[in-house]
Amino acid sequence: MAKNLTKIIEPQDASMVMSLDSEWRTGKTTFVRMWKNMLDSNEYNERFKTVYFNALENDFIKEPLVPLFSEFML
By the 8 A CB rule, do 58 and 67 touch? Predict the structure, then answer.
């Protein structure tokens, strides 16, 4: 599934936003982490730059932009 989704987004020139919607505990986080690892691999990493941010892990923070922006600095 990740390779098929990559084939859909690869030819896009403009920035895009995607939404992944499914019931709780159906594997969304696992899929996104595995897809990120695939896109970070040598085969794709020159074409894609990835950032992973888990909002639930940072839900308690008063200023949510701070941890989000810190992910871009890594």
Answer: yes
Give residue 46's identity as a one-letter amino acid code: E
- Write the DSSP assignment of 30-60 as a string of letters: HHHHHHHHHHTSTTTTTT-------GGGGTT
- 11-47 pLDDT, tens digit per residue, is 988 888 888 899 999 999 999 999 999 999 999 999 9
State CA 14 to chain mean position distance.
Answer: 17
Domain ranges of the chain: 26-74
Instruction: Return the number of other C-beta atoms located less than 10 Å from residue 8's C-beta.
Output: 10
